[in-house]
Specification:
heterodimer; A: mainly alpha; 2 domains; 12 helices; 83% helix; globular; B: mainly alpha; 5 helices; 78% helix; membrane (chain A)
Chain lengths: 228, 129
């Protein structure tokens, strides 16, 4: 794999993202989300040109590495909105604890029930955890990484589309309840959705996302050991 | 033109600073063999630096905002890996989707319902209205 080819894929993906960003600004729908359009475009281009995904990753890995700093950067909005969440810290922590326990155990048990393979089940386990952390959890336990990325994205999409309506149906109206509910399944996508609806709800969502990542990292190995 | 260049350099330096926290988090995570990934440790360290006023929020805000704005781009390489799993998705995709939806519904209902009741009680709002 030559350096120039790696650079080509890196630049191409970035340019595609620029275009997709403009497209989403102009036509803001779920199916024009840059993450979907750019991923689809990359897959189509790789397939047509007969390039393997492994070859693409020679350039793509540099983008993946930026996920770490991006997650770290969440400290900044979290710091800026901290006054919204301070009062409800115990409630949020308790809610995230219950949510993470339900998510992890129901995934593993339903997976066993429906005879999902071990690597798939472990890839599905961190589906409600923000992607870079989900990948770390999956990698440590032996799940399939590409599957984890897909499951996390699908969960985020389903959650941020269905979640707000479902909570209205369940008569969950308090911003703390709504923020925790949405981000405890749809991670960063849920928190972003909350932020667009109400700044206080978004603040709760951000904290929920961080706490879920922390708790899931600690709890996942234990729960895997108990179930398997 | 000059001020635009200056802004770009500022943002780049801020991103490098944030990346420094992420790398420090990686070192701490590996050094102490913590179950938390380095980027979350980095987040906690950056938060503590802001909270303790060791670091002014102005020094990282613009770079952080750009990183978060373009974050979907960083997901593409991992996500496009699904192209190697088309056979799997045809065989087990539906099964996984069912589990994913049931588990998400249980999670949302459990956590949101509990927190909503607790938060309302704390603010003295009647739970039954």
């Amino acid at each position: 794999m030559s350096m120039s080819e790696a650079l080509f894929w890196l630049v191409l993906t970035t340019l595609l993202f620029g275009g997709a960003f403009w497209l989403y600004r102009t036509f803001p729908f779920v199916w024009t989300l840059p993450i979907l359009t750019v991923t689809a475009a990359v897959i189509v281009i790789l397939s047509i040109s007969g390039t393997t995904h492994a070859a693409y990753m020679a350039g793509g890995q540099y983008l993946s590495r930026m996920l770490g700093p991006a997650i770290t950067a969440f400290a900044i909005p979290l710091y800026q909105v901290r006054h919204h969440v301070r009062k409800f810290l115990p409630e949020i922590t308790l809610g995230v604890g219950i949510g993470t326990l339900i998510a992890l155990t129901s995934d593993l048990l339903l997976g066993l029930l429906l005879h999902l393979g071990r690597a798939t089940n472990l890839a599905l386990l961190p589906k409600s955890v923000t992607l870079p952390v989900a990948l770390a959890i999956s990698e440590r336990s032996g799940g399939t990484l590409a599957l984890t990325a897909t499951f996390v994205l699908v969960t985020g999409l389903v959650g941020s589309i269905v979640g707000p309506r479902l909570m209205t149906g369940l008569r969950i109206r308090h911003f703390v309840g709504r923020g925790v509910g949405l981000a405890s399944i749809a991670h960063v996508m849920g928190a972003t959705k909350s932020m667009s609806l109400d700044q206080r709800e978004g603040a709760v969502g951000l904290l929920t996302m961080v706490l879920t990542a922390v708790l899931a990292s600690v709890l996942a190995p234990w729960i895997i050991q108990i179930v398997y | 033109m000059r001020s635009k260049l200056l802004l770009s350099v500022t943002i780049l330096l801020q991103i490098i600073l944030i990346s420094g926290f992420a790398m420090l988090g990686d070192m701490v995570s590996r050094g102490l063999q913590l179950p938390l990934p380095g980027n979350i440790i980095g987040l906690i360290l950056l938060y503590l630096a802001l909270k303790s006023r060791l670091l002014k929020v102005d020094y990282v805000e613009r770079g952080g905002r750009l990183l978060l704005l373009v974050m979907p781009l960083f997901f593409v390489p991992a996500l496009s890996g699904i192209m190697d799993y088309t056979v799997f998705m045809r065989q087990s995709g539906l099964q996984v989707l069912v589990i994913l939806i049931i588990s998400s519904l249980l999670t949302l209902t459990g956590s949101a319902f509990l927190v909503d009741r607790l938060a309302r009680r704390k603010e003295g709002i009647d739970v039954h209205e």
